[in-house]
Write a structure and sequence with these properties.
The complex is a heterodimer. By secondary structure, chain A is mostly helical. Chain A has one domain (about 5-210): MetI-like (MetI-like fold, Orthogonal Bundle), CATH 1.10.3720.10. Chain A contains 8 helices and no strands. In chain A, helix 1 crosses helix 8, helix 2 crosses helix 4 (about 85-110) and helix 3 (about 70-80) crosses helix 4. The longest helix of chain A has about 40 residues, at about 5-45. The N and C termini of chain A lie far apart (about 55 Å). Chain B is mainly alpha-helical. Chain B has one domain (about 5-240): MetI-like fold (Orthogonal Bundle), CATH 1.10.3720.10. In chain B, helix 4 (about 65-80) packs across helix 5 and helix 6 packs antiparallel against helix 7 (about 130-160). Chain B is flat and about 70 Å long. Classes of the chains: A mainly alpha, B mainly alpha. Chains A and B meet through helix 2, helix 3, helix 4, helix 6 and helix 7 of A and helix 3, helix 4, helix 7, helix 8 and helix 9 of B.
């Protein structure tokens, strides 16, 4: 039934895959946004003066980044089975990656010279202004390429969302493949779409890294 | 004790065999990835344009197409194309090996490049043969640089093994899910599963720390025992796009 590569199946499934690709992109962008904001909050909380804040924060981030995204997704979807799967997917992706981005922010914050903190002290800036006007602008600039790389990794892990029935690209690919018994065509096509989207982006990140002098 | 935990104890042999499948996939996948990482990473530093080009294309291909797709391609599409079918766990091992081998190749390449130029020059001045130069001078120093990134990749690989559940291999996740379905205790089941993966990840991290310590010793860099318990560094994973 299925000898060689069936170009009709490619033509027929491509619009479906691209439709799913929009959901893939949406999940990546929103997930990255959650990871970027939450990661920053976690990194700043990790520098709180009290141990009652910093120790739990460290334990939770360590736990989240050491455990599989797939288990977190499936568990969350089973616990909150009334919530739209896409929202669960975005939240879990965001939280999972926040555990990584918080470490990146932390390294960025540590990279800000000590004299900057001391200068804030000397000017008696309140903590809020110290962070907002002095520390973070310098720290965030240094971590941008690393954040970009995590966004690319997240993009390549969005197929996990298909497992909790989010109708992204791989979900559509599996469905079409099962209905028409054309797995070769759809999975090859989906893989190529990933490659075409992620390779130029990672080249861009490499360029950015070089420019910022890493 | 709740139903889930009593069932977990009751069905312990099944859980143990699931754990075994997960560990098998992790270790074999990591070994394949390690071999590919060194082969492709060394080729990337070759003088032959063909070898460099081949390595570049393979690395970018397996990094760029998602692991998930590679796994499904091996499982669903390969039997249709080649008529040859792999067992689910073997699919996992091959897909994990290829994907993380490609990421690892970048680590090997970067670490070899980071060995100071003077070391090459000294080895040439001493008239060491190219293979002795690599084995005795370059690799021992590069190896120390590679280990933290390899640790990160190994944990990433471990975290991908629940994908085997989708290929209906009887891995840890599959087994715990069946226990959950029998008791209906979602929270207990998934928290237990997460905890087991956490313990596995920490144990693997400590093994890699041990490896790092012995590698450093060989270079005459002594480290204290506390270095064995340190957690993975995320900054090395993030920079240079090693993920």
């Amino acid at each position: 039934m299925n000898d060689g590569f069936d170009w009709d199946a490619v033509r027929e499934s491509l619009p479906l895959l691209l439709e799913g690709f929009r959901v893939t992109l949406l999940a990546t962008v929103l997930g990255t946004l959650v990871a970027a904001v939450l990661g920053l909050a976690v990194a700043v909380a990790g520098r709180a003066p009290s141990r009652f804040v910093t120790v739990p924060v460290r334990v939770v981030t360590e736990f989240v980044r050491s455990t599989p995204l797939l288990v977190q997704l499936v568990g969350a979807a089973a616990l909150f089975n009334t919530v739209e799967p896409l929202y669960i997917g975005i939240t879990v992706l965001g939280v999972h990656y926040a555990a990584y981005t918080s470490e990146v922010y932390r390294a960025g914050i540590d990279g800000v010279p000590k004299g900057q903190w001391e200068a804030c002290r000397a000017l008696s800036l309140p903590p809020r202004r110290t962070w907002q006007a002095v520390i973070l602008p310098q720290a965030v600039r240094n971590v941008l390429p690393a954040l970009g790389n995590y966004a690319i990794s997240m993009f390549k892990e969005t197929p996990f969302l298909a497992v909790i029935t989010v109708q992204e690209m791989v979900f559509e690919a599996r469905k079409y493949g099962a209905d028409h018994f054309a797995y070769t065509e759809v999975f090859t096509l989906a893989g190529l779409i990933f490659l075409v989207a992620s390779y130029p982006t990672s080249l861009l990140m490499r360029k950015l890294e070089k420019r910022l002098g890493h | 004790m709740s139903d889930f935990f009593s069932l977990l104890v009751e069905e312990f042999p099944q859980v143990r065999s699931g754990l075994w499948v997960t560990l098998q996939a992790t270790v074999l996948g990591a070994l394949l990835a390690g071999v590919l990482a060194f082969a492709l990473g060394l080729m990337a530093g070759s003088r032959l344009l063909l070898a460099r080009g081949f390595s570049r294309v393979v690395v970018e291909f397996f990094r760029g197409t998602s692991l998930y797709i590679q796994l499904f391609w091996l499982y669903y599409a390969m039997p249709l194309v080649t008529g040859y079918e792999l067992a689910p766990v073997a699919c996992g091992v091959v897909a994990f090996g290829l994907n993380y081998g490609a990421y690892g190749a970048e680590v090997v390449r970067g670490a070899i490049n980071s060995v100071p130029r003077a070391q090459y020059e000294a080895a040439i001045a001493l008239n060491l043969s190219p293979s002795r130069r690599l084995w005795k001078v370059i690799l021992p120093q590069a190896w120390v640089q590679m280990i933290p990134s390899f640790t990160n990749l190994l944990i990433q690989l471990l975290k991908c093994t629940p994908l085997l559940w989708l290929l209906s291999a009887a891995d840890l996740m599959t087994v715990v899910q069946t226990l959950r379905d029998r008791t209906g205790e979602t929270l207990a089941a998934y928290l237990t599963l997460l905890a087991v993966y956490f313990v596995l990840a920490y144990a693997l991290t400590m093994l890699m720390n041990l490896l790092e310590r012995s590698a450093k010793r060989r270079l005459g860099l002594a480290t204290g025992a506390s270095s064995l318990f340190k957690s993975r560094s995320a900054s090395t994973a993030a920079l240079g796009g090693t993920r």
